[in-house]
Amino acid sequence: MKIRHFSYLAAAASILSASVNAASLDGPLSSNATTAQMDVTASVDPVIQILHVEDLSFGQLDLTKSFLDEEDITATSTFCVYTNAPSFSLEITTARFVSSQFYMTGANNFEDLTYTVDVVKKVFDGSQFINEAVAEDVTPGEVLTTIAYSNAGYINNICDTPTETVDNIEIRAYLDEQEVRSVSADDYSDTLLITARTVAGSFGG
Hints:
The chain has 205 residues and is mainly β. It folds into two domains: 2-38, no CATH class; 48-199, Immunoglobulin-like (Sandwich), CATH 2.60.40. It has helices spanning 2-19, 177-182; strands spanning 24-25, 37-38, 48-51, 73-83, 87-94, 102-106, 112-124, 129-135, 143-148, 169-175, 188-189, 192-199. The longest helix has 18 residues, at 2-19.
């Protein structure tokens, strides 16, 4: 009995040792019981999505109004980035040819009206969402890397809270008041392209 007991322990030890180096292991030949081993694995691919995108508009600018008064004119737009990765990157560029700055072009006079872009993230601090700066004065094509993703404060993957929708990314665009006064009256426009990419290290197996 002692010899058989020793043989059983030796076989079990052999299985445990081999499991370190093998994903699967056949059970040894036995007169009463044998144990085989197989690993169970799955690889979940990263996904990412941008939701709730709306146009960014400075509106109708009336140069006679005092609200300009040497200050930047601001326009904001928010959207929701969802990913199952721990972080993501954002790239903001323009549909026009490569440029070192953002600018709108007049529909009739083809003059350029430059603007600047900041990116802000909404972060849940345990009781409310607060603003956290990601980057200021972004240049077209600049990649903003390793923006941490968190679902804290949300009840689903589309930025809904128990009471409202709070998008987690905000774009802030600024027009310089003097720049606005220097161009002709016209309708100015540009098209921004926003690309979000997962930043999550290695996936798959």
